[in-house]
TrEMBL record:
<dbReference type="GO" id="GO:0004722">
    <property type="term" value="F:protein serine/threonine phosphatase activity"/>
</dbReference>
<feature type="region of interest" description="Disordered">
    <location>
        <begin position="492"/>
        <end position="512"/>
    </location>
</feature>
<protein>
    <submittedName>
        <fullName>PHLP1 phosphatase</fullName>
    </submittedName>
</protein>
<dbReference type="Pfam" id="PF13855">
    <property type="entry name" value="LRR_8"/>
</dbReference>
<dbReference type="InterPro" id="IPR032675">
    <property type="entry name" value="LRR_dom_sf"/>
</dbReference>
<dbReference type="InterPro" id="IPR015655">
    <property type="entry name" value="PP2C"/>
</dbReference>
<dbReference type="InterPro" id="IPR001611">
    <property type="entry name" value="Leu-rich_rpt"/>
</dbReference>
<dbReference type="InterPro" id="IPR001932">
    <property type="entry name" value="PPM-type_phosphatase-like_dom"/>
</dbReference>
<feature type="region of interest" description="Disordered">
    <location>
        <begin position="656"/>
        <end position="716"/>
    </location>
</feature>
<dbReference type="InterPro" id="IPR036457">
    <property type="entry name" value="PPM-type-like_dom_sf"/>
</dbReference>
<feature type="compositionally biased region" description="Low complexity">
    <location>
        <begin position="690"/>
        <end position="702"/>
    </location>
</feature>
<dbReference type="Pfam" id="PF00481">
    <property type="entry name" value="PP2C"/>
</dbReference>
<feature type="domain" description="PPM-type phosphatase">
    <location>
        <begin position="189"/>
        <end position="436"/>
    </location>
</feature>
Length: 716
């Protein structure tokens, strides 16, 4: 008498025989065997169930499905053999005249099956395979509603085939991507899937924007209308525009997310009076003022749509469901004197106390979302957005474990949807998987003294970031991949430096011995993005600003007793080192210049100032690095200075495209006067000085400065 059997998510390797004797016959109609270890040996045993209508054998170890066995399952209506290693679907599937759903994604299928010959076929999913072409009949099946061919990179469709397939209500195919012009690896990539429930109504919707507002932001969302189609569709079409407008008004994550949901509640209009829907939004943003800074993930949700982040292989919930079981929500609802039915619903309508729509239940039911922001780290692998049907069937631990080893985001989303359906979900399902590739170059933990931010939620101790010591040859300047260094290196090309300096400048870095007594930021930890700049380990790189002059030999002026602070020389090249480290993190703190001389030179370091100094002292310094002396050298300044002013007072660039450093006479360039001409040269120089004095006296007579007239005659 067994008609329904679900043995999914076990470790089955074999199936028992259909019957114990020839006199009894199986009447089994639905068999779910997803997520087991079944092999090809189990397929012949299925023929003992001739009345089988629904067969799910996804994510097993099948390599083939014999055609003779498929021919005997004539009453089969729905089959799911996804996630195996099948290379083809048997042609005897034509014998299954009642077949309406064929799901075979995430296999190795190379030949398009003959499913289009079935008159009752409605849904075909062949995504994430190795299809290269599609063979279609002259007329498509009249009931065909969905055809998914995404994730087939080798697939090429001609114009005639595309015109024919575009008549399908839901036809999915990969869009040709232009690719990233910069050639840099993507920080995130996504895949999403949607599946209708038993009533064949798609009451969910997904939102995905990899380039939201600009190429440094992304927006993803999942919306669930439970049993209505209108609200998810409105949320999908409207919420991204509202969020873009709110981002122009405020940069606070919690503020713009809450405003987005409240405005969306108003825009639902009449559709939101008696209907409602759950929603979750995930916004990835990057500080535009810090090109090499961190990415922030902000999640906001109402209802039962939720987000979970996989960090170090463990789930990190970013959402919260406000239900009647929450004490604070129950207390709030009782204050508004709402009716709570026996099944735990507000006025018998919804068990979610925070959800979009249902305006007739206000103020008991409100659209205020739960907002949580987190800084993305290299330990963050991916995050999942799911609808109510997904999380009712899978726990967050199961979902993270199921897709952690799936390399493709689309295949991961498909797997979540297939597992939920095989575990008994009859509702509409939507899942979005966003894979992350946050490198250490785009993760800055300097604000927290080198320690990454703690993990919120139930795993506060799950992150351990090791800040590796960089070799000394990489400590001089940030890498050219960062925004600041690339701008500097783009202005100073290699050809400019070589043509100006000539062969006197050596390209080898100076060999500098480390001094144990020299300060090297002992108490400060920096990230890989902003390394510590040691005072005695300055290395010359092409990305550093190089100032050259034909009159510089050792960085010393004739009247100076010590080297110019922050200036390093090599032959006729003068190099100035400036540490503009993580200005965003220290914009509210003061900066000072410790004058620490050593035998090799002095490094200008930007450290945090004493806490006792007033805030306005940051802008009180009128000098830059120091006061400029009359001979062109720079004297060290006692108090703090502004880093912006350092850049503005750097040696100006000549019209010819080169920098001018403080000049001084080069001994090699001085005149060598023979003794016999010495008296004659002195006489010429004396006459030249007398001429200059006479010219100055004439100018003073024409334009007297010591006595000014009381009035002047002017044309007015």
């Amino acid at each position: 008498s067994l008609r329904f059997l679900n043995a999914s998510a076990n470790k089955l390797e074999m199936l028992p025989p259909a019957t114990l004797s020839e006199e009894t016959h199986s009447i089994l109609q639905e068999l779910y065997l997803t997520n087991n270890n079944l092999t090809d040996k189990c397929v012949p045993l299925l023929t003992g169930h001739p009345h089988l209508k629904i067969l799910h054998m996804a994510y097993n170890r099948l390599q083939s499905f014999p055609a003779s066995k498929m021919a005997k399952l004539e009453e089969l209506e729905e089959i799911d053999i996804s996630g195996n290693k099948l290379k083809a679907i048997p042609t005897t599937i034509m014998n299954c005249r009642r077949m309406h759903t064929v799901i075979a994604h995430s296999n190795c299928i190379e030949v398009f099956p003959e499913v289009m010959q079935l008159s009752e076929i409605k849904c075909v999913d062949l995504s994430c395979n190795e299809l290269s072409e599609v063979t279609l009949p002259e007329n498509l099946p009249p009931k065909l509603q969905e055809l998914d061919l995404t994730g087939n990179p080798r697939l090429a469709l001609d114009h005639k085939t595309l015109e024919l397939l575009n008549n399908i209500r839901c036809f999915k195919i990969d869009q040709p991507s232009a690719g990233d012009a910069s050639g840099a690896p993507a920080v995130w990539s996504h895949g999403y899937t949607e599946a209708s429930g038993v009533k064949n109504k798609l009451c969910v919707a997904a939102l995905s924007a990899n380039n939201f507002c600009d190429n440094r932001e992304a927006l993803y969302g999942v919306f669930d209308g439970d049993r209505n189609v209108e609200v998810p569709y409105l949320l999908q079409c409207t919420m991204s525009d509202i969020l873009a407008e709110e981002l122009q008004k405020t940069k606070n994550e919690e503020e713009y997310m809450i405003n987005t949901f409240i405005i969306m509640q108003r825009k639902l209009g009449t559709a939101g009076q008696k209907l409602g829907g759950s929603a979750v939004l995930c916004h990835i943003k990057h500080d535009p003022m810090d090109p090499g800074g961190c990415f922030t993930l902000t999640s906001a949700n109402v209802g039962k749509c939720q987000t979970v982040l996989c960090r170090n292989g463990k789930p990190l919930p970013l959402s919260r469901c406000y239900m009647m079981s929450c004490e604070e929500e129950l207390k709030r609802i009782k204050q508004h004197k709402a009716i709570i039915t026996e099944d735990g619903k507000v006025n018998g309508v919804t068990d979610s106390t925070r959800i979009l729509g249902y305006t007739f239940l206000h103020p008991s039911v409100v659209p205020r979302p739960h907002v949580q922001s987190i800084t993305l780290t290299p330990q963050d692998e991916f995050f999942i957005l799911g609808s109510k049907g997904l999380w009712d069937s899978l726990s967050m631990d199961e979902a993270v474990e199921a897709v952690r080893n799936v390399p493709d985001a689309l295949a991961a989303a498909k797997k979540l949807c297939t597992l939920a359906q095989s575990y008994g979900c009859n509702d509409s399902i939507s899942a979005v998987v966003v894979q992350l590739n946050v490198t250490e170059d785009s993760f800055c933990c300097c604000e927290l003294n080198g320690v990454p931010p703690p993990s919120p939620g139930i795993f506060p101790q799950s992150v351990n970031v090791v800040i590796k010591d960089r070799p000394t040859d990489a400590l001089g300047m940030p890498s050219s991949s960062s925004g600041m260094a690339s701008e500097i290196s783009s202005e100073i090309s290699t050809s400019e430096m070589s043509s100006e300096v000539g062969s006197t400048a050596s390209d080898e870095p100076p060999q500098v011995a480390m001094n144990e007594n020299s300060p090297a930021y002992p108490g400060e930890q920096r990230c890989m993005l902003h390394p510590v700049c040691l005072s005695n380990s300055f290395q010359r790189q092409l990305s550093s600003a190089t100032f050259s002059s034909a009159f510089s030999d050792n960085g010393l002026d004739s009247d100076d007793e010590e080297p110019i602070e922050g200036v390093f020389t090599n032959g006729s090249r003068v190099e100035v080192e400036v540490d503009i480290h993580c200005s965003r993190a220290k914009e509210k703190q003061l900066l000072q210049v410790p004058v620490e001389a050593s035998d090799e030179g002095i490094v200008i370091s930007a450290n945090e100032d004493e806490p006792g100094l007033p805030r306005k002292a940051e802008y009180s310094a009128t000098g830059t690095i120091g006061r400029r002396r009359g001979n062109g050298s720079v004297a060290p300044q006692e108090r703090s200075h502004n880093l912006i002013e350092v850049a503005t007072d750097a040696p100006l660039r000549k019209t010819g495209g080169y920098f001018a450093a403080p000049a001084q006479p080069d001994p090699d360039d001085q005149f060598i006067i023979p003794p016999e001409l010495e008296e004659e040269v002195k006489e010429i120089m004396k006459q030249h000085q007398e001429q200059q004095q006479q010219q100055q006296q004439q100018q003073q007579r024409q334009y007297p400065t010591d006595h000014l007239a009381d009035y002047y005659d002017t044309p007015l």
